[in-house]
Design a protein that fits this description.
The chain has 338 residues and is an alpha/beta fold. The chain contains 14 helices and nine strands. Helices cover 38% and strands 14% of the residues. α3 crosses α4.
């Protein structure tokens, strides 16, 4: 476990860099552990959830939620920093990833946004966590945003990379600029049977994920060991079905389940989020919206800060772990918590 002195030094670097408009390099926390062990399992809702847990059992809870095509190791450096500050850090594999499994073979392999959000609530209930800080990127940001919007009483604070990511399927039917559409190439690939076959073929799905890592994080010089460690999560037997359904559902090419209709109707209204929030924009992420957060500012109505991280790509927690951890700590200290 990383010591408090090292955490303070790394976090101090983050504060100084943020004040100058920059971010600390990932090397600022290079002494942090490179993996999670052991992985725990707990039955929660429809799933047997695999998760890493760090920090004191009675500390304030933080749930760190990963995206696609990533896994819990996006937090391998940020989580120990938070644990060293007394937080109980929970990093779960999302459905279809790692050691998380469906309890029943009959359960629909559904990855629509409300279903994944309910997984988080079920996990919190199973671990007897009444309120937590939710922090995430990509699928994790979307999931955290939804829980904060619909169940704010369960959320102490929110850290959302790329801001407000609640999916509006009607808006998704409208074309974007050619350059913006180009960045989403894999969504269209997954709409085809060629894409399905690629996800079902181990070597091809790894090649695809590696390409996404490189294009979405153009300045991140990750090594083979780092990628291979994460890619084991893609060997989950439900991974192809979950990934395909997530992207096809977003494009209205796949149906959701009727049991989630009421929640999806609420999400279609783009509900505001009133919990204390820090949003983070990675400058080098091709999916970062222009305008330094202005496009989603009106969706956050509570205590709020926005930070742009120059030189950082899509996998922000792993590329800039100290800056991410700093945001979690600072979110809990926004005015309503003083």
């Amino acid at each position: 476990m990383i010591g408090r002195r090292m955490f303070t030094k790394a976090m101090g670097t983050g504060i100084a860099a943020a004040s100058l408009g920059g971010v600390p390099a990932a090397s600022a926390v290079s002494a942090a552990p490179s993996g999670f062990a052991p992985i725990k399992q707990v039955r929660a809702g429809l799933l047997d959830v695999g998760y890493a847990e760090l920090g004191p059992a009675h500390g304030p809870a933080v749930l760190c939620l990963h995206g696609w095509p990533y896994d819990i190791h996006s937090y391998a450096d940020a989580a120990p920093l938070l644990a060293a500050q007394g937080y109980r850090v929970i990093v779960p594999y999302l459905r279809g990833h790692g050691t998380t499994r469906f309890l029943s073979e009959r359960t629909v392999r559904n990855a629509q946004q409300s279903a994944i959000a309910l997984d988080v609530l079920a996990l919190m209930d199973a671990l007897k966590i009444d309120r937590a800080v939710l922090a995430g990127f990509d699928w994790g940001s979307r999931t955290a945003d939804i829980v904060a919007a619909l169940w704010p009483e369960r959320v102490r604070a929110l850290v959302s990379v790329s801001g407000y990511l609640v999916t509006n399927r009607e808006a998704n039917l409208k074309p974007l600029s050619a350059q913006a559409e180009h960045a989403w190439w894999y969504q269209y690939y997954f709409a085809t049977e060629r894409g399905r076959t690629a996800l079902e073929t181990p070597d091809l799905r790894r090649d695809l994920a590696r390409l996404v890592w490189r294009t979405a994080s153009p300045t991140w010089d990750f090594d083979d060991a780092t990628f291979d460690r994460a890619a084991t999560a893609f060997d989950n037997p439900d991974y192809p079905a979950i990934v395909l359904h997530n992207y096809r559902w977003r494009l209205s090419l796949a149906d959701g389940e009727r049991r989630y209709d009421a929640l999806e109707k609420r999400l279609a209204t783009r509900p505001t989020i009133g919990v204390p929030t820090i949003t983070l924009d990675p400058e080098k992420d091709p999916f970062t919206a222009p305008g330094d957060g202005t496009s989603y500012r009106d969706r956050f109505t509570g205590p709020y800060e926005h930070r742009t991280l120059p030189g950082i790509g899509h996998n922000l927690p792993q590329e800039a772990p100290a800056a991410f951890a700093r945001a979690v700590v600072d979110a809990t200290r926004l005015p309503s918590h003083r």
